[in-house]
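Fill in residues.
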């Protein structure tokens, strides 16, 4: 894994959800993946470190009782923590 990236597994741990639930319901709320790597029978997805803050924010919104639809609306309106693009060299 690139040292400056976060895996979907780490985001799932922050959110406290299963792998199927993450990809079905939460992945669209995260920052866009910065890379994907195929291995064996699967794909490893990597996110920018700013995705950690977004995952914590989503978790906190759920704790306050917001639905995924309400959270998606906030993301769409730019009310979620910003995603940063990795620095290009």
């Amino acid at each position: 894994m690139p040292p400056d990236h976060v895996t979907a597994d780490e985001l799932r741990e922050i959110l406290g959800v299963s792998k199927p639930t993450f990809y079905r319901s939460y992945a669209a709320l995260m920052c866009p993946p910065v890379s994907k790597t195929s291995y064996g029978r699967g794909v490893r997805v990597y996110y920018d470190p700013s995705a950690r803050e977004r995952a914590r924010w989503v978790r906190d919104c759920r704790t306050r009782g917001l639905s995924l639809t309400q959270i998606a609306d906030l993301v769409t309106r730019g009310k979620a923590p910003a995603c940063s693009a990795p620095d290009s060299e």
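The CA atoms of residues 49 and 81 lie 12 Å apart.
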